[in-house]
């Protein structure tokens, strides 16, 4: 389910959300490579069928925002939630209603803001996105992703799963442009 994660240092920027320009995600240029600790190396191969889908080397299907495979229920919910979301300003929210009264299938996505993120001594301006998905009555999955505003490259991701209290924090340790 979770395929890749990323780490880095964060510094909160002081700009107000109202003064910030809208941001739109775009997949990194084909040939961009991001190495994570813990986690894999992501080799971006271009854009998938939708603006939020990125082709990742070695993966069968595109990944939504480079975070989750679009064949997985979480990835599909993330893709549906993002429909028409961009361009967005910090504080923008989108969501899907639950599929049944128990709340299963409900999702919420927020562009939480922008932060400086450091990878291998280089500072990147990152869009910080929070996404949650109610997978079952007892299970909610949360992704917090920081994406480089200029290139769309995933810089860090925190994955939390209430089932088994699992938490992974992965950070990029190197970004190699094409």
Automatic annotation (TrEMBL):
Which key words tag this protein in UniProt?
Answer: Signal
Q: What is this protein called?
A: Uncharacterized protein
Q: Which residues form the signal peptide?
A: 1-19
Highest taxon listed in the record's lineage: Bacteria
